[in-house]
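Dear colleagues,

I hope this message finds you well. In preparation for our joint manuscript, I am sending the Xyloglucan endotransglucosylase/hydrolase (Panicum hallii var. hallii) sequence together with its predicted structure, so that both groups work from identical material. I would be grateful if you could confirm receipt.
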Amino acid sequence: MVGSKSDCPWLLLRLLVVLLVAASGSAPVAEAEAAFDENYAVQWGADGYHLVIRGTEVNITMDQNSGAGFRSKSMYGSGFFHMRMKLPSGYTAGVVTTFYLISQPEDGSRDEVDFEFLGDKAGVPVTLQTNVFVNGRGDREQRLHLWFDPAADFHDYKILWNPYQLVMFVDDTPVRVLRNLTATVPGYPFPAKQTMLIRASVWDGSGWATDGGRTKVDWSQGPFTAGYRGFDVSGCASGGATPCGSPDLWWNGAGYRNITAEQRAAYEGVKKHYMNYDYCADKGRFNNTVPIECNYA
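The corresponding structure tokens are as follows:
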């Protein structure tokens, strides 16, 4: 997506957010990249073609026979999770590329936090859809077009999940924010009680992903390949000695309990310039009202 002169202040604001995050010094300095099998295992598509492990990088390929997916070896109760991803390019209608957290078992009471990249026809920007499930209830979709081509190079996609807030980032720009107000707002949804796996996959979403399912995967345009990197995990594994809500864990510290004013401004910029669907604005979907959390966004 090519920017215009009117985007310049917005681009400068995003750069400021990146510099502030880099200068904060709150998080530990990253060590050498972890190999895939240190923290992750293949979930499906383990045939040597649909999922190929190259040490610190994994390629997932989807064709008419299969896609593939992988998962973390541990369950987590809080953390600042990330994945570097490069999406399939060209005609990708119907192709869904994901990075998400999900509780177990995957039933009607699950919690889930989704990055879902919905492919499209050649020349049409990929849609990033985020969604949050709490106790099996989803229907909280937000969709946006990114300010860069996610198929051209690797970018960071991050989920900060702690007892205070859930924040989803593209690189260092917040694209979704949900505070934990369960203690003061009855019925407020926040994924606070269940541990979750980290998962990622590429699969056929022809039934819904593009134009509401009207445009399907064209297998003659495939195969479709996504790249994943960044297999180190900053998270509180369940069963560990430290409680996952402990302030001793850096992602639970004071600097991660609210977004900053600069991050809030960047988030508002995303909603103004790039978001094209927000369930909180879709009153017709909810009988001319909005879910309770929308009143505190």
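For the figure legend, we might mention the following. The chain has one domain: 36-295. DSSP finds three helices and 16 strands in the chain.

With kind regards,
E.M.
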